[in-house]
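Our collaborator T.R. sent over the components below with a one-line note: 'Predict the complex.' Nothing else. No constraints on interfaces, no templates requested, no preferences about which chain binds where. So this is a plain run: every listed entity goes in together, and whatever single assembly comes back becomes the starting point for the next discussion.
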Amino acid sequence: MTAMQGVFLFAAGLILWAAFMMVTRQNLVHAAFYLILALFGVAILFVLLDAGFLAVIQVSVYIGAISIMMIFAVMLTRGDVIEEDPVNKNYGWALLLAALFAFGLIILIGQWPAVASLAGDFDSSRDLARELGVALFSPQGFVIPSEVASVLLLAALIGSLVVARRQKGK
Amino acid sequence: MIPLSWYLILAALLFCIGLYGVLARKNAVAILMSIELMLNAVNINLVAFWRYFTPQTIGGHVFAVIVFVVAAAEVAIGLALIISIYRRRKTVAADEINLMKW
Amino acid sequence: MPTETLIWLIPLPPLLAFFLILLFTRKNNALSHTVGVAAAAISWLLGMLVFFAAVGVDHFGENPFRSAIAWLPTGDTFLNIGVMIDPLSAAVLFFVAWTVLMIFIYSIGYHNFGAPKGEHDKPGLPPHGAADHGHHVPSIEPMYARFFAFIALFAFGMFTLVVSDNLLTLFVGWEIMGLCSYLLIGFWYGKPSARDAAKKAFLTTRIGDVFMLLGIVALYSATGTLNFHEILRNENILHLLATTDSGVLGLSAAGLIGLLLFIGTVGKSAQWPLHVWLPDAMEGPTPVSAMIHAATMVSAGVYMVLRMFPLLSAGWHHGDPLTTTMTVMAFIGAFTAIFAATIAVTQNDIKRVLAYSTISQLGFMIAALGIGAYVAAAFHLVTHAFFKALLFLGSGSVIHGMEHGVLHTGDHVDPQNMFNMGGLKKKMPITFWTFLIGGLALSGFPLITSGFWSKDEILADAFANGHFTLLAVLSLAALLTAFYTMRQITLTFFGEPRTKAASHASENKLVMTGPLMVLAVFAIIAGWVGIPEHFPGIGGLLPNWFHDFVGSTLLEHPVAPDFSWVPLGISLGVALGGLGLGYLVYRKAGSEDPLRKPLGPLYTLMENKYYFDELYTKIFVQPAGVIAEKFSYWFLDRKVIDGALHWVAQNSIALGTFFRDRFEGPVISGVADWLAHSTAAIGRLLRKVQTGAVQQYLLVVALVAFGGLFYYLFSVLR
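Returned assembly:
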């Protein structure tokens, strides 16, 4: 077992444990913290996969922005911070479905020969952030998808403002 | 060295935990959080495939970034909806928001 | 501009004038008649240019002016609309252009342009006159502008007919004139007699027109074209038509078609037995529309048979026995000539005399054509148009003068009755002299007048070809013609005035007498173009131009009859004899016709036009009424049609009731209700699924989606 494998198994265990805790916690604030932990584990995996820039984005966007928003939302809807029963009455079916799905996916993965392949060498001197920027905004690259994504963001911004705005007289 | 299958299995398990959360949790905020877990599982897969099969290009990154964008948009809208619903019904329990029931 | 273009333009100015007057200038009398007369003048000018261009062309018969454009698509081919001027239509165009222009000018005076408005005048009635400084004077026609619109449309129809190069557009012009004659005869629609006369004219001519249309259709189906040039100058087609058996009465196809077309002429040119409408047509504004009918429109009928003569006589050559069709024409023409002439002798209305005279003279032409005297018929058509136009306009002038006298004296006598006239020679000198010229031309006064030359040629033709019966009949008709003409002149102009009105009659203005003088000139000189070459004394001084010119229209140039003293003697005898007799008998006539006593019942018979109107009333009108009442109304309408309708209706109701009770209720409604109830039940069952719990939905969706996904992946990848 190499150091890399050790780091991976640690991160994987962290992620799965935090995720499991997140979906089972009664206290939503706790759940949010477990979510942050799981996301952090994912950031570790990104580093392991030589995608340092993505790891940075993961930390800053997910942990720094999204998770904080979750916590705000939990506090804004504070009547339900601690639930009597965190799951609904269909949770048995949900569990069965998730388990079956996981089982099926693992079997599928096991049947694919390419999953045994290992990662090739990586030129660590590459400036991935720069390449990403060029790819996102060059006409030969992904300028249209990135523009569409920005329009989506704008729409989400305006839409959330409209939806969440307190109506007059209410 | 780490085989690709480790990442894929991890992503599958994480996805299924998120799925369970989405289907079973009562609280709408918790459902949103579970969706984030599922999206992260997808991101792990994307980046892993990039690293193992096409490290010379940058497409995997672009996909991951767009998933971030979608996640951010979804959270913004989702939370806005939850707050709006909470204001009207004083609850965020998904199984109590059954206005469309027959 | 090429001559063909000019020909295209000839009919258009009157049409334009018609619309201009009707749409814009109706309210302004002066503008309206200016437009009308200008249009007639332009057409006249174009007509003269074309006529003189035609005269200047060598072998014009072989190379007439022709121009055509595609008009109506008929499957793969086109019906062409086109114009053609050949020698015959050039001659007709000449007199039509002149007479039409003269009529337009004359109408201004006749309808009292410049006179004050009558206080009691109403549209649809003749003007009653107006008070002016204590005097009663004529008043202007209330529908002055409308009259010009109608005669403009009439002129359009006539020009169209003349320049047309095919039977179809000829028929169009023909029917336009039919419409206009209806409108003009019924111009004073306030008078019941005018309304009846209009209807009578329209319906009577319609009988002929239906047969003519049948003839046109038959001709088209037989030859595939209606173009004159293609049919009438094509020996193959004519030969084919002449030898094909039509299957009707043993006639050849050409004979049958010719006969059908000829029936159209019988209606239009008022030949026996369809002559009854023309005398009644004198109800129209005197004498302009009457003149249009008598001198122009009725000429159209003769023009048409002249035009179609090669078809009518297909298979006949000079000297052969006459074909059936030609025999029919000769018989009807000759019979009409003598028949109408006898009626004319007894008529007292100055216009009716002329109307019957017209019928009689048209009979001369038809008879001439029937014996193959093509050129003689055409010649008489031209000369007759001029002198009959002159006579009609002259009679109108007389009536107008008489009306003046009637208004002036307040002596309300019929201004058209010749026995109320007399002595007008001194009162109306220009009218007298021109009328005299016209009358002498009609009588065939020797050597000077045009009527002599044309009538003489008909008689000469009849004699030369051995049709002695016809010669006798026509000679007698000519004698009667001279007699009644002199009777008319004597009663009207000579002697002493018989009424106060006549003694106060006055001559008309130049706008009316001018056209009379112009036409009088033509009534004399129009005959000089056709003097036979071997006529003693003056023959050959002027070449027999008309014969060569019009004769070249035919493929086979007609032979001029050899000169003989017999027909000439007859001509001289009947003309001078008739004139002399007429003068002697009527010289001292009072208010009673001197012939009434000696002729007795015969006179009454002729005076009542052989009771043809009454006969037609008995044979056609009353039976039609009875059939309409008893058969159509009671039997067909009430019993058959209404009965069938009621039967259908009652059965429909019964059937409807049956369907409503037995089918609609149980079956249709039942099925529909069952469907609705079933749908509702299924809905009630299925709505349980709609729990409103989002996650439940998602669970199901995920289950199905993942199930499908795994099934696909495992079955494909395996």
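Summary for T.R.: The mean pLDDT of chain B is 88.
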